[in-house]
């Protein structure tokens, strides 16, 4: 099995860290720790987490929900390969993360 985090997802996470650091309490490092924990959990058991509701037909796209921050870690499972494609706030528009899907999907 291979596990990777796309450049788009890395950018999403970095943007979230910056946004949380601008808020009172400066929770960027706490979010980063939660994101890292999510990545480890997904890498260990990718099919444990639910399929997304705003997915793409024919693709196995799942999400790990970071409850504390209401963030969705969205990833693509293809055979034994796992690719985190996006990190988006749960209140964001449905399907906005589709922009991060690899062109070959």
Tell me what you see in this structure.
There is one protein chain. The protein has 105 residues and is of the alpha+beta class. It has one domain: YaeB-like fold (2-Layer Sandwich), CATH 3.30.2310.20. Helix content is 31%, strand content 27%. It has 2 helices and 4 strands; from the N terminus they run E-H-H-E-E-E. Strands 1-4-3-2 form a 4-stranded mixed sheet. A hairpin with a 4-residue loop joins strand 2 (60-66) and strand 3 (71-78). Helix 1 runs antiparallel to helix 2 (28-44).
List the helices and strands and how they pair.
Elements (H helix, E strand, L loop, with lengths): L1 E4 L1 H16 L5 H17 L15 E7 L4 E8 L2 E9 L16
Parallel strand pairs: 1-4
Antiparallel strand pairs: 2-3, 3-4
Helix pairs in contact: 1-2
Rg from Cα: 13 Å
Strand order of the largest sheet: 1-4-3-2
- Which fold does the CATH topology refer to? YaeB-like fold
Classify the secondary structure makeup into a structural class: alpha+beta
Mean pLDDT: 95
What is the N-to-C succession of helices and strands?
Answer: EHHEEE
Number of E strands = 4
Number of domains: 1
Tell me the fraction of residues in β-strands, as a range: 25-35%
* Percent helix range: 25-40%
**What name goes with the CATH superfamily?**
RelE-like
Unreliably modeled segments:
none
CATH class: Alpha Beta
- Tally the helices: what do you get? 2
CATH architecture: 2-Layer Sandwich
